[in-house]
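Review form for a predicted model. The reviewer records the input and the model, then writes brief findings.
Reviewer: anonymous (R2)
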Amino acid sequence: MLPPKMPASADQQRLLRLYRQMSKSGQRSLLDFAAFLVQREDAAPETTGGDAAPVREPLDVPRPADETVIAAIRRLSQTFPMLDKDEILHEASALMTAHVMQGKPAAEVIDELEAVFRRYYERVKSTPE
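Model under review:
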């Protein structure tokens, strides 16, 4: 037996109405943005265990040809594990919003995200340990 269906809240109903009015590409962008927000909320601060030295150099994680903005944020987070993602969050969110809400092309947003992560890395690199 299935559990009783919970009624959707007014916000959920509004979101569904807006989603249904969007193009397929807009729907995909909205889902990508929702996934980004969930990932941001689920992200726990990374720590290094024991005597392990923190990673000071970026890792080599190649950029795929047809990368989404969400996938780029994940890749850049892996490439730059030494960065505090909370510090980058504001700029990354603004770029994601430009992509989702204003239709800025993913490739442009990803290029800008790479520049943001690189800029924050340069700050960390220049900070004495």
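Findings: The CA atoms of residues 35 and 70 lie 8 Å apart.
Further findings: The helical segments are 10-21, 24-42, 69-79, 85-102, 106-126.
Recommendation: see findings above.
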